[in-house]
Amino acid sequence: MDYASLQSKMDTLVERALMLEIEKGLVSIFVNSHVNQLAEVVGKEIDGFSRENVEKSEIEKSNSEKESEIGDLNRQLEVEIDTEKLKVSRVCDEIDDIRVQLDARIQEVDDLQLKVIQTDKKEARRNLQN
Fold first, then answer.
1. How far is the C-alpha of 26 from the C-alpha of 47, rounded, in Å?
2. CA–CA distance, 15 with 7 (Å, rounded to integer)
3. Measured in whole angstroms, how far is the alpha carbon of residue 42 from the centre of its chain?
4. What secondary structure letter does DSSP report for 97?
5. pLDDT exceeds 80 at position 50
6. 71-106 pLDDT per residue, tens
7. How far apart are CA 21 and CA 61, in angstroms?
């Protein structure tokens, strides 16, 4: 081989090496750009997950507070119901006592009316005998 052909091959190889170096730089820039885009997307997704976790945590905390509040209200309601049951029971007892007293008075009135009727009959007989 002569010097010119070797020089030509060497020039071709140098040119090709430069082209490969340029391609390598372009690929590196493309890959770097793509990695940055993916990192940004992943970062946004992580932020979204973090926000969702915070929101979920806040919702769970709110639910827990509401459940606790409902439990407290249920206990208060049970106490109030028990109190009202006691009041109703006392009122029923008082009504029963009043009924017993009323029945006794009615019986007393009936007895007195019977005595009045008997007395009137006795007086009417005396008046007829006299």
1. 31
2. 12
3. 34
4. H
5. no
6. 999 999 999 999 999 999 999 999 999 999 999 999
7. 58
What are 128's two structure tokens? Answer: 């007829």
| C-alpha pair distances (Å), 23 with each of 10, 31, 35, 83 | 19, 12, 18, 88
Angle at CA 24, nearest 5°, toward 33 and 12? 155
Whether the CA torsion 92, 94, 97, 103 is positive or negative: it is negative
Q: What is the DSSP letter of 1?
A: -
Q: Distances in Å between the alpha carbon of 119 and those of 56, 115, 122, 123, 125?
A: 92, 6, 5, 6, 10
pTM of the model: 0.46
